[in-house]
Amino acid sequence: MANGTRHLAVVRHAKARAPVAGHPDHERRLAKRGQDDAHALGTWLADQLGRVDRVLTSSAVRAVQTWEAAAEALGQEPPVDVLLELYQSDPGTVLRAIRRVDDETRVLVVVGHEPTQSALVLALAGDDSDPDAVQELEEGYRTGAVALLEVDGPWSALRPQEARLVAFAVPRA
To answer: What is the pLDDT of residues 127-160, one digit of tens each?
Structure first.
């Protein structure tokens, strides 16, 4: 990791169980495939980043479970902020949450939902982003997908078009 460079991994929660009439969407749990894929996500994060310093996750059960399974594979338990504001949110809300992260955090993971995650990444990705990663992202931000961005400077100063999208993946078990 270059001196001064921070890493931001923007994750869409893994595959959830189908909605059930009368049950709140917020309480939907991961499907078996989602659990397995979230574990693969943790392995991918370990390979790409080595460590994670902090996690922001939506309070939706499926988002929290995605991080729990990923952390198990990562073999690490960084501080996790479970935020209701990241559920049914918009890119501006997520960006404000990122900007509140302390500057000691070098590697940040944000677990949330579509269409917010893809819109956030596309807003942050500057012209020096990897064109293949941008194209893959534009083809679909499937469940369990992760976009990896590099950020120069403090989280509090992060602005649109000021990050570099360096990788996009959909890890599968």
So the answer is: 999 999 999 999 999 999 999 999 999 999 999 9
Residue 7: Cβ within 10 Å count: 23
Residue 144 φ/ψ region, left for φ over 0, alpha for ψ in the -120 to 50 degree band, beta for the rest: left
Is the pTM higher than 0.85? The answer reads yes
The answer as to whether 165 is a domain residue is: yes
Q: Give the structural domain span for 89.
A: 5-17+27-169
> 26: closest CA among 69, 63, 61?
61
The stretches of the chain forming alpha helices (DSSP H) are 32-49, 61-74, 91-99, 116-124, 131-138
The helix (run of H) or strand (run of E) holding residue 147 is strand 146-152
76/49 Cα distance (integer angstroms): 12
